[in-house]
Amino acid sequence: MPELPEVERAARALARAALGKTIAVVRAIHPSLKRKLDPASSRRAKGRQIRTIERRGKHQLLGLDSGDTLVVHFRMNGDWEIGTTGDELDRFARAVIELDDGTRISLVDRRALSSITLDREGSSSLPKLGKEASDATLDADYLAEVLQRRKIAIKPALMDQSVLAGLGNIYAAEALWEAELDPRKPAAKLSREKLEKLLTAIRLVLSPRRRRPGRYTDQAGRERFMVYDREGKECRRCGGTIGRIVQAGRSTYFCPQCQVR
Ligand SMILES: [Zn+2]
Question: How would you label 171-191 residue by residue, b for 16+ Cβ within 10 Å and e otherwise?
Answer without folding.
Answer: bbbbbbbbbbbbbbbebeebe
